[in-house]
Amino acid sequence: MVIPPRLAPLLEQFDFARERLAGRMAGPVMDSGDGTDIEVGPITGEEFFWEPVPECWSVRRRSDGPGPRATLLAGTGAWGRDAAAYPHPWPPPFTTIAWRLSHLSEMLTLRADHTDGGHVLTRDDYLVNGDVAEAVAAFDAGAAAWRKALLSADDAALDTLGHCTYPHGSDAEEPFIDIVWWVNQELLHHGAEIALIRDLYRARQH
């Protein structure tokens, strides 16, 4: 299928952000931004759950219940992600790498389903991972599914309101190209946050 000209730069941006975050999380090298490879090790379990400030939101065993200021654990399975119904706590809780990566992976997986899949998945269906390797693999799978969904969109689809039926955002009111842009900025800014937490963890004083 021919990629619509308006989609091409957004797809390129998505690929860049995805590959950079994947390298930053798993190593063995990451792109420094100027083409230089920097050695980086994979995220450890301790780092995945590290809480740099008190009362972080994270991914937790369902049997332990939600964390501070959270009222529920989103997702399914033995683990869940701290969450709360609207209005969310203010100021927003600081979130761990585990939380941010789960949020990204869920969003990509669900939006892919609601664009080019069964159009049925909700947050209650999403399996939350408490193992760092499984969480990274879930991100890779979600990103691949979203990219496949993007390739299914023709030029008319980019202008269609509600082309993506994702139930947890403004998708029903937005042309699909705006949703594509939104997903990119989610990946860019949460990817940068994950990278920063990795830097802080490495530089922390023991």
Explained architecture:
This protein is mainly α and 206 residues long. The protein has one domain. The chain is 46% helix and 8% strand. It contains six helices and five strands, in the order αββαβββαααα.
Search tags:
single chain, three-stranded antiparallel β-sheet, mainly alpha, 5 strands, two-stranded antiparallel ribbon, 206 residues
Task: Please give a quick description of this structure.
With 206 residues, this protein is mainly alpha-helical.
Uncertain spans: none
Share of helix, binned:
40-55%
User: Strand portion, in percent?
Assistant: 5-15%
Distance between the termini: 53 Å
- In total, how many beta strands? 5
What is the number of helical segments per DSSP (H or I, 4+ residues)? 6
Domain unit count: 1
Strand order of the largest sheet: 3-5-4
Main sheet: strands, sense, barrel: 3 strands, antiparallel
Structural class: mainly alpha
Measured on Cα atoms, how large is the radius of gyration?
17 Å
Dominant shape: globular
Order of helices and strands: HEEHEEEHHHH
Q: Give average pLDDT, whole number.
A: 93
Could you give the topology of this structure?
Elements: H1 8-26, E1 29-31, E2 37-39, H2 45-48, E3 59-61, E4 72-74, E5 79-83, H3 97-116, H4 132-151, H5 155-158, H6 176-203
Helix pairs in contact: 1-4, 1-6, 3-4, 3-6
